[in-house]
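Lesson 9: reading folded outputs for more than one chain in a single document. The general rule is that every protein is listed as its sequence immediately followed by its structure tokens, and records are never interleaved. Here is the first one.
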Amino acid sequence: RIIIMAVFKPFRAIRPSANHVKAVASRPYDVLNSNEARQEAEGNDLSFLHVVKPEIDLPVDTDPYSDAVYDKGKVNFQDLMSRGILNQDPDSSFYIYRLTMDGRSQTGLVGCCFFEEYFDGIIKKHELTRPVKENDRVRHVECLNANAEPVFFSYRGKSSINEFVRHKTTETPEYNFIADDRIKHELWPISNTEDTKFITDAFKEVPYLYVADGHHRTAAAARIGKKRKEENPIHTGKEEYNYFLTVLFPDDELKIFDYNRLVKDLNGLSSPDFLTKLEDSFIVSQYGEGDPQPTMIREFSLYLEGKWYRLLAKDGCWDENDPVGDLDVTILSEKVLSPLLNIVDLRKDNRIDFVGGIRGLSELKRRVDSGEMVAAFALYPVTMEQLLTIADAGEIMPPKTTWFEPKLRSGLFVHDLE
């Protein structure tokens, strides 16, 4: 019998009408830098980037963490509301949200999770957060008094929920558009009382939720809930600030892409010496004409001086009894980055950079060939099962281990904390 249960509740979303949704919907705040966001929103005053990256409407040299930026985001959000571009639904609802990319679909349920569950361990994480980014999201949410962007959660799938979602998505979606990046987005509001009760009850039998993408937003939401609870002498636990915006996806529908590494130098080693030292831990061979993309765990690809090399980890390079020690990113850190290149702190060392696998190996090759970087390492992706196992063990993955695609679009639904 499961005693622990996940709280998942419907809410009155603030969202665009179907005829405005494509113009409003934007990529999330953390996948674009300010210049990229400025270019993407150019000529589109409805883009939600004006809310989640509001520095694009201020002078180029504006500090992105200044009060002016958060205030501008609030002004832009209120402007979309006052113009009727965004409106709040009259009834508390869940929403079914399906994304389709390259023929593969993932379908999640949009609702609100309870902040206390982050502290209680029901919402499980697998990454550490950086204070500067966490503080940024706290200030953004506090200024808007709303969760502008959802967090991307997963759970171990349940057949009853899958069947409910499958049945509902046979109906015509309210939103159905293909974004500029060719990803299709569909949304079905679920406001019928019987249906919302089914979803709420079904998640009472889901013991844990897992942060897939959005650790900073989750941590920020938990901090805001805790702060408002402490500041409210008549706190009941029912207030809207106790909840934050999430999309929950069954684990078997998600795909993790590789997260690759680039290094600026070889720590004083010549390329031949570096390759020789790699042979202590890897079987090293040069690729011929084939695709250098790693095809299995323990296999790495190295791009160095215009050539691709295959690195196959030798037995003893990993710890099968440790879910983190068993990861390829750990092997790379412990056998290459730290001992050979003296790159120890992946969060702070500016000699290393990270590239999501969605950009392909050509991006790694381009940055090395340009002279910006000296070498690139391509990895095989982590699996969802590895992620869940690590989170269940209370362990933390190394930085920049998972890259999820497709990303949730922002601006499709907002949660008002009042």
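And here is the second record, again sequence then tokens.
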Amino acid sequence: MPAYSLSHITQSYGHSANPPLLDKVVFTIDHLHQGGPGIYSTFDVVKYLTDQQIPVTIFLQCSDPVNRCPAERRIARSIYELNPALVSLGAHALATGNSQSNQATNLDLVSEVIGDITGSIPTIMSYHGSNAGPENGISYPGINYARGILSNWSTAQTDNTLNTPVMSLNSVNAAFDYIRLRNLAGLSATLFVHSVELTSGSTRKTVFDTLLKSVSVGKLQALSYVAAMQSDYASTPTTPTTPTTPPVTPGSPCRLWHCTDK
């Protein structure tokens, strides 16, 4: 697998919401991908980010819940140990339509994995699947902030801390516009990708790399997801508790090699 490298960058972010303060962007990644020939692994991408001193959050979902997620434990630990000050781990919900019992079991298991690696359980989450988000009757105890999938947002709308939107990665200009609007409203802009989507020549890689370059040259400020949420909502999450070991039943795992939800 190749070491991560930037695309040829032709654009640079030119705004600043409240000069001299920079506009804020958050880098997040869904799932742990092992990569392959010509395909970047999550480790490859995170290593590049941490080498550039850019914080990043990875949201975990288990591919083998019956055996307590051995692959995720191994990969997540290697990623976290790249730089614990810059790498944070969050939980990933199951697909929309799963029962409260299945969602709770998944959250407990992912919390155990993250707790084993970091020493504290997660208070942040990412939703799973197309247009997934909060569902009536479904709750996630201990989760203070959740990143949504939808990108439709305007300054006239009020953010929901459990469904913060993400930027569109359809074009560099669309991403720039989204960051600008969010920051003018006093809010950070959240980007999310799967590492396997960052293929050479793809639009998503061009957008991702352009934002990375804008951070590295001091045009944008990169924050961790938790720091951004705390700043956006001026609140401090509750102190994580010591993880417990919950009973686990098979859920709806997302395979390491084939996670393609958007």
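What the second record shows: Residues 100-118 form the longest helix (19 residues).
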